[in-house]
Design a protein that fits this description.
The chain is built from twelve helices and no strands. By secondary structure, the protein is mainly α. Helix 3 (about 50-75) runs antiparallel to helix 4 (about 80-105) and helix 3 packs parallel to helix 6. The longest helix has about 30 residues, at about 215-250. The protein is globular and about 65 Å long.
Length: about 280
């Protein structure tokens, strides 16, 4: 009886393209030469590569979150809830990748990190303009936080565009208003740069939606997708805070914040307040 296992894959019957000169290749399409040459450790410490890659991968995932949420907002503006829901589902899956990344970084010990931390200078995740853009797009409007990007004109423009535009929650409320729900006028026409203030009238609308989900199915499903998005965002923040605590304790952050103390403050923020508070009064 012949052994069904082999030490190599038989490619003799495959029509593989071996000669890729002057043709589109995998590496060319993905710009891998550029991508894989973008890790430039400042020390010879083994774990600095991990630190760089985790943050670079996070920025790539955040780029996709911005792409997907922009598409979702465009659909909401056209009263197309279905396609927006698909994009929000994808965002939730991306968020799971971001959460899991902290588990990888947490394999770094305090001694591992302190071996190269001083070389970071004042660089900090606090300066991530993509993260700030996501926060502003979701609704955590705080113009003061944009100041750190002023020396980087493209980042400054991106962050301020998100600050000045309606947030995802604003777009949701405008959609509900267009569909005849009793959203107060001051919630659909306001200064978008200011933080959103919760409204009892808006909570009443969500109570109506949640108490009769069969009648209001699309709005109900949209509400639940937003809950999922914010829930995972909070999980990401919590995992970030605990990883920082595990690695550097309560040291001040390289960007000047109080470190863990600052990250804890963010855990109390809400992007979509009424779909959380309504749960208590159903």
């Amino acid at each position: 009886m012949s052994d069904k296992f082999s030490s190599r894959v038989d490619v003799s019957g495959e029509d593989i393209h071996w000669d890729l000169k002057d043709k589109m290749s995998y590496g060319g399409y993905l710009s891998l030469d550029t991508l894989l040459a973008s890790q430039n450790p400042l020390t010879d410490e083994h774990d600095e590569m991990l630190f760089i890659l985790i943050h670079q991968v996070g920025e790539l995932w955040m780029k996709l979150i911005l792409h997907e949420t922009a598409g979702a907002v465009a659909h909401l503006q056209q009263d197309e809830i279905g396609p927006a829901l698909k994009m929000f589902t994808r965002v939730a899956r991306i968020q799971e990748q971001l959460i899991a990344a902290w588990d990888v970084l947490s394999t770094m010990t305090p001694a591992d990190y302190l071996a190269f931390r001083d070389k970071l200078g004042q660089s900090s995740g606090f300066q991530s303009f993509q993260y700030r853009t996501i926060e502003f797009r979701l609704g955590n409007k705080n113009a003061e936080l944009a100041r750190v990007h002023k020396s980087n004109p493209p980042a400054w423009a991106m962050v301020n565009a998100a600050l000045e535009a309606p947030s995802l929650w604003d777009e949701t409320l405008m959609l509900l208003a267009r569909r005849g729900y009793a959203i107060p006028a001051d919630k659909t026409s306001r200064d978008w740069t200011q933080p959103y203030e919760a409204s009892a009238a808006v909570e009443d609308v969500w109570r109506e939606i949640y108490r009769d989900s069969k009648t209001h199915w699309e709005a109900y499903e949209l509400g639940e997708k937003l809950v999922d998005l914010e829930h995972k965002f909070q999980q990401w923040r919590f995992a970030h805070m605990k990883t920082v605590e595990r690695i550097i304790g309560y040291r001040r952050g390289t960007g000047g914040t109080s470190g863990v103390g600052y990250l804890v403050k963010a855990l109390d923020l809400r992007f979509f307040p009424e779909i959380w508070t309504v749960r208590t009064s159903l």
